[in-house]
TrEMBL record:
InterPro entries membership: CutC-like, CutC-like_dom_sf
Any GO molecular function: copper ion binding
Family: Belongs to the CutC family.
Top-level taxon of origin: Bacteria
One Pfam assignment: CutC
Official protein name in the record: Copper homeostasis protein cutC homolog
Protein's organism: Streptomyces violarus
Length: 232
């Protein structure tokens, strides 16, 4: 690969953030409540992490379990509060009842982000038509990344989809970075790197003792070493 692969680690608080940075993470995804697969953290948490580390921070905009937008007015208000707390990068993604992208909700939220970069998260893995979703979002201000496992069931099941999408990079709807996460293991890394994937996202893999324990700097360092071992 021609450049260092991005390693993004889920952080729930300052302790996680500090350990992830020590282990060699490039970026953090800030969330709370992993029992609901990651919801929006408080503005105070974001501000505290911002003071503790100098990594890029992507803050989740998701107020309830599932992939419906819910209260769009509240989402817009929360996004504004997070911007005031220093958030400059975000993670979001909303589907309608039929599994299509909820374009109205995405546009409303993105409209208050002032061009900040953002990731469309694993809602894409629940979409009725991944390709249609990508093409509908093509050109959306700030959208630079898709976080995906290729399947709602994880990377093992979605690997062929990930490889196919990596091969389409540069086509309309496929210009964004492919950030792979969701059941991602170290043994997936060589295949993904060889396909040109340059983004890796870990949560549980950074916590060998489970979600009740903090991020392990040593676990993150193992991922950093594996990513950096790829031929240039």
């Amino acid at each position: 690969m021609s450049k260092r692969a991005v390693l993004e680690v889920i952080a729930l608080g300052v302790e996680d953030a500090v350990a992830a940075q020590a282990g060699g993470a490039d970026r953090l995804e800030l969330v709370t409540d992993m029992a609901a697969d990651g919801l929006t953290p408080s503005a105070a948490t974001v501000a505290g992490i911002r003071r503790a580390v100098d990594l890029s921070l992507r803050v989740m905009l998701r107020l309830a379990d599932g992939f419906a937008a819910g209260d769009a007015d509240r989402l817009v208000r929360v996004a504004g509060e997070l911007r005031e707390a220093g958030a400059e990068e975000f993670v979001l993604g909303f589907l309608d009842a039929g599994g299509g992208v909820d374009l109205a909700a995405v546009e409303r939220v993105v409209g208050v982000l002032d061009g900040c970069p953002w990731t469309f998260h694993r809602a894409i893995d629940r979409a009725a038509d991944r390709d249609a979703l990508r093409k509908q979002l093509d050109g959306m201000p700030g959208l630079d990344t898709y976080l995906t496992a290729g399947s709602a069931d994880g990377v093992d099941d979605g690997l062929s989809v990930l490889l196919a999408e990596a091969a389409r990079r540069g086509e309309p709807g496929y210009e964004q970075h492919l950030l792979v996460g969701g059941g991602l293991r170290l043994d997936h890394v060589p295949t993904l790197l060889a396909a040109g994937v340059d983004g890796f996202h870990i949560g549980g893999a950074a916590r060998p003792e489970g979600w009740e324990a903090p991020v392990s700097a040593e676990a993150v360092a193992r991922w950093r070493t594996a990513l950096d071992a790829a031929p240039a």
